[in-house]
Write a structure and sequence with these properties.
The chain is an alpha+beta fold. It is built from four helices and four strands. A four-stranded mixed β-sheet has the order 1-4-2-3.
């Protein structure tokens, strides 16, 4: 069984927020220094992205599956590029910033509060010659036969466990 969703929102990278960032929301904007204002705007943009992505996912009936999913992030070419360069890169793999793991973090942080149940994800990022990007998700149901089993030599055995316990005194 396969399901596809296209989420019409330009992908954005994850932004690590610290406990100290909360101060920016309590100080009036006109009293913030330029660097503080820049950080506040970045935090607001990321928070808005998460809210909009979740709303778009709910609108499209998106469901996150632990068994298998393919996520493709379509990122618009920079405005500063020539039309020739944009045309040449359209559809090609995106091999520069933002990092794919940060795009995935922002995606999962927006959709679910805990993503620990997700076990199989394929991530791709591509250039597009459009002013806005989007996220394409394809759900793949994986049967038990398709699941890769851990080879026996890597399985934790009693012998391996006792070996590890004997090494504890070295630490």
């Amino acid at each position: 069984m396969r399901k596809n969703w296209i989420l019409h929102i330009t992908p954005q990278s994850h932004l690590r927020a610290t406990k100290g960032d909360s101060i920016f929301f309590r100080i009036p904007r006109e009293k913030l220094r330029p660097s503080g204002l820049k950080r506040l705007l970045r935090l607001e943009k990321y928070n808005n992205y998460k809210i909009e992505l979740l709303a778009e996912a709910k609108k499209r009936g998106f469901e996150l599956s632990p068994s298998g999913m393919s996520i493709t992030f379509y990122i618009p070419c920079p405005k500063s590029w020539s039309q020739k360069k944009k045309t040449a890169h359209h559809g090609m793999l995106h091999q520069s910033r933002p990092d794919i793991d940060n795009l995935a973090k922002a995606f999962f942080d927006s959709i679910v509060s805990e993503d620990k149940f997700v076990a199989n994800v394929t991530l791709t990022k591509r250039w597009v010659d459009f002013p806005l990007g989007w996220i394409e998700c394809e759900l793949k149901k994986i049967s038990n036969r398709e699941l890769i089993r851990l080879p026996h030599k890597y399985a934790r055995s009693e012998e391996h466990t006792s070996e590890l316990q004997s090494l504890r005194h070295l630490v």
